[in-house]
Amino acid sequence: MTFYIAKTLRVPFDTAIDKVVAALKDEGFGVLTDIDVRATLKSKLGVDWRPYRILGACNPPLAHRALQAEDKIGTMLPCNVIVQDLGGGNVEVAAIDPSASMERVGKPELTELAATVRAKLQAVLARL
Q1: CB 121 within 8 A of CB 20
Q2: Could you give the CA distance from residue 80 to residue 4 in angstroms, rounded to a whole number?
Q3: Which DSSP string corresponds to 13-27?
Q4: Is the pTM of this model over 0.85?
Q5: How far apart are CA 4 and CA 6, in angstroms?
Q6: N- to C-terminal Cα separation, the chain
Q7: Which helix (H) or strand (E) holds 105?
Q8: Collapsing DSSP states into helix, strand and coil, what is residue 39?
Q9: Region 52-66: what's the mean pLDDT?
């Protein structure tokens, strides 16, 4: 089982970010965190890196259900979605596959919930 789902787009990087945020919103997610990896690596290490952002997406009703089932599930929240410039006009959008991690907890209600979140993230990618 892979730990992520992904799609490659042929749009400018900033356009991809806007599209991802809008598609997440359409599926009930908000972006809680937005980590600019390129800027962080440059400021902290002096390293040049391609445009790369980590969006911490959260669907509050689903997160609440997960926390009710297992209070330590917060270690797996929010759902991270990366947007990275692959060069040549290609931008990859990849999201965590929550089934890969939540199934390991061993609670049937989390396995079912992970499948729901995975379907929503797949719908996000399909909208792009």
Answers
A1: no
A2: 10
A3: HHHHHHHHHHHHHHT
A4: yes
A5: 7
A6: 24
A7: none
A8: helix
A9: 97
Amino acid letter for position 61? P
Q: What's the angle, vertex CA 6, arms to CA 47 and CA 106, rounded to 5?
A: 105
Retrieve residue 79's tokens: 């759902």
Q: CA-CA distance, 3 to 29, in Å (whole number)?
A: 20
Backbone CA torsion sign across 104, 110, 112, 118 = negative
On the question of a cis peptide bond just before residue 78, with omega within 30 degrees of 0, the verdict is yes
Amino acid 95: pLDDT: 98
Listed residue (6, 4, 8, 7) closest to 87, CA to CA: 8
Q: How far apart are CA 88 and CA 81, in angstroms?
A: 21
The rounded distance, in Å, linking the Cα atoms of 96 and 45 is: 26
Q: How does residue 51 score in pLDDT terms, banded at 50, 70 and 90? A: very high
Q: What is the mean pLDDT of the chain?
A: 96
Residue 71 tokens read as 């209070």
**Of 9, 3, 29, the residue nearest 84 (C-alpha):** 9
